[in-house]
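Module 6 notes. Inverse folding takes a fixed backbone as the condition and produces residue identities as the prediction. Think of it as a translation problem where the source language is geometry and the target language is the twenty amino acids. Below is one complete input and output pair. Work through it position by position during the lab.
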């Protein structure tokens, strides 16, 4: 009885043969240069996202923008208001207007309250600042006069 092509093919595959009609079946391999180009491109993208800011004023501007976003999600206590977040004198100053005058709060307690307003060291604003740059939280009265200031880098 003559075998048909389909039946011969099924018999060959059932025996585990990797050839059909004496023609090897090949799987297409990825081109080595294409794989290399992909790996290099992904490495370049990852490196460009990790590069530190080299210009100090640019780092301060970026940090002040990130702090504005941080304080949108983490507002100061009731009665306190953020009047400005801006880079000044190699630092980012966060100006908070306090509701009560200096006589109603002891100075040490005021410093502690201002220090509690510092962003955590894990915040994205710290990643763009150089080690010599700082974030300073300043407490102002209603007229804009500075009452106290706290360096956030000095706080541990």
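Target side of the pair, the amino acids:
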């Amino acid at each position: 009885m003559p075998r048909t092509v389909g039946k011969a093919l099924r018999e060959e595959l059932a025996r585990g043969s990797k050839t059909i009609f004496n023609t090897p079946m090949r799987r297409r391999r990825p081109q080595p240069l294409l794989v290399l180009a992909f790996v290099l491109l992904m490495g370049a993208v990852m490196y460009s996202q990790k590069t530190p800011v080299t210009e100090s004023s640019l780092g301060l501007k970026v940090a002040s923008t990130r702090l504005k976003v941080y304080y949108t999600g983490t507002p100061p206590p009731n009665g306190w208001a953020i009047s400005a977040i801006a880079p000044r004198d190699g630092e980012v100053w966060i100006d908070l207007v306090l509701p009560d005058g200096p006589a109603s709060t002891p100075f040490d307690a005021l410093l502690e309250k201002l220090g509690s307003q510092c962003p955590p060291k894990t915040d994205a604003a710290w990643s763009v600042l150089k080690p010599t740059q700082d974030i300073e939280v300043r407490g102002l009265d209603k007229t804009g006069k500075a009452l106290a200031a706290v360096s956030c880098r000095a706080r541990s």
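Reference fact for the lab report: The radius of gyration is 32 Å.
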